[in-house]
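Figure 2 data, in text form.
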Amino acid sequence: MAKEPTNLVLEYLRRIDTKVDALAEDMIQVKQRITRVEEGLVLVNHRVTHLEERIVELTHRMDRFDGHLGRIEKRLGLADA
């Protein structure tokens, strides 16, 4: 029985198919990693927003303390009128 000739086109298609399968697996992993990064960014955004809110609260408190301190200084004669 004679050996059948190698079909080069079929061989190349099989190689391409193998490479495409590997790329598909890589893309699945990349998408999963991107999803985790996005989830992490959401958490960071929430934390930054919370910190900004705290800064605003503390700024308001400092403004009130500044007002109180000014009145105290006036009563004690420590501030210019």
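Caption note: The mean pLDDT is 93.
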